[in-house]
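Weekly sync, protein design subgroup
Attendees: M.S., D.O., the rotation student, P.L. (late)

Item 1: inverse folding check
M.S. brought a backbone from last month's batch and wanted to see whether the design step gives back something sensible before we order anything. D.O. pointed out we never logged the input encoding, so this time it goes straight into the notes. Structure tokens as presented (295 positions):
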């Protein structure tokens, strides 16, 4: 998960760079479609394959619509309307939705120690993000951005829990193949949005191609495959708690580029790390079994 989180965090600066030459919609579509095609091409090499049944593709559509289509669009539009700080905070509320939904639908119990770790981790995220809130929209745009970012967090949580349930039902599920199918299905859902995208894309910009290449390979393929694989090994609350580190990694990347965080932001980095460490303590693991296979 360490590599997954580092790649996910680095995707934020890469997205920011890509937005200089294109639109959020183009980035979302390219990540989903190109990521799906690339992963599908690699599957035979790693001994995997795309799903072979209609039922598996139906689940790929459901999960892909949540963690690829809805989440990517909600994050992009939420950021543009409500500001990066508001969107980042709401997105990182997904571990709490996972804790509640996981308890209701997967019978995943949260130990008191893990609950404390979740709260500590989120407090660190607040310190990191709000230490430099940047520009925030107002009025209707803020309300729409707030709502969209919240929808993205819920969709991300629900999609992950659905995939976790699929893995509980069938531990031999081909994770890379299922992930490729999710990308392709999510990309199909996103494609019509290009018809309404009035922004300009500078396809002749080398920096755009470099940013998109990283987002497809690192931010999409490697992050999602690693994340989905982790859902087959750990309870959802433990996996999602690692996402608290994503904004911290993004801040660290910016620091290496010369944009040093404030004292509050630096404190937030250590608080986030402490929260994730608490969540991953052996003593934080609930002894309750998790089983709620999808019929």
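Designed sequence read out in the meeting:
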């Amino acid at each position: 998960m360490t590599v997954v989180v580092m790649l996910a965090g680095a995707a934020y600066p890469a997205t920011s760079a890509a937005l200089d030459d294109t639109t959020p919609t183009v980035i979302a579509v390219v990540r989903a479609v190109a990521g799906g095609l690339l992963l599908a091409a690699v599957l035979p090499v790693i001994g995997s394959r795309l799903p072979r049944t209609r039922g598996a593709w139906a689940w790929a559509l459901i999960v892909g619509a949540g963690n690829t289509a809805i989440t990517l669009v909600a994050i992009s539009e939420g950021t543009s309307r409500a500001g990066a700080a508001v969107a980042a905070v709401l997105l990182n509320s997904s571990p709490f939705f996972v804790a509640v939904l996981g308890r209701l639908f997967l019978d995943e119990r949260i130990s008191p120690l893990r609950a404390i770790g979740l709260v500590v981790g989120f407090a660190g995220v607040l310190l990191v993000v709000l230490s430099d809130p940047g520009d925030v929209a107002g009025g209707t745009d803020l309300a729409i951005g707030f709502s969209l970012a919240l929808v993205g967090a819920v969709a991300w949580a629900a999609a992950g829990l659905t995939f976790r349930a699929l893995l509980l039902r069938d531990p031999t599920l081909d994770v890379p193949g299922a992930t490729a199918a999710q990308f392709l299905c999510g990309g199909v859902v996103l494609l019509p949005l290009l018809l309404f995208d009035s922004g300009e894309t500078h396809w002749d910009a080398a920096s755009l191609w470099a940013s998109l290449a990283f987002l497809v390979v690192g931010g999409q393929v490697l992050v999602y495959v690693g994340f989905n694989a982790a859902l087959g090994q750990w309870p959802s609350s433990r996996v999602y708690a690692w996402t608290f580190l994503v904004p911290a990694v993004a801040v660290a990347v910016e620091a290496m580029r010369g944009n040093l965080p404030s004292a509050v932001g630096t404190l937030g980095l250590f608080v986030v790390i402490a929260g994730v460490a608490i969540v991953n303590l052996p003593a934080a693991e609930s002894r309750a079994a998790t089983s709620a296979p999808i019929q």
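Discussion: Residues 288-295 have pLDDT under 50 and may be disordered. Residues 2-284 form one domain.
Action: P.L. to compare against the previous round before Friday.
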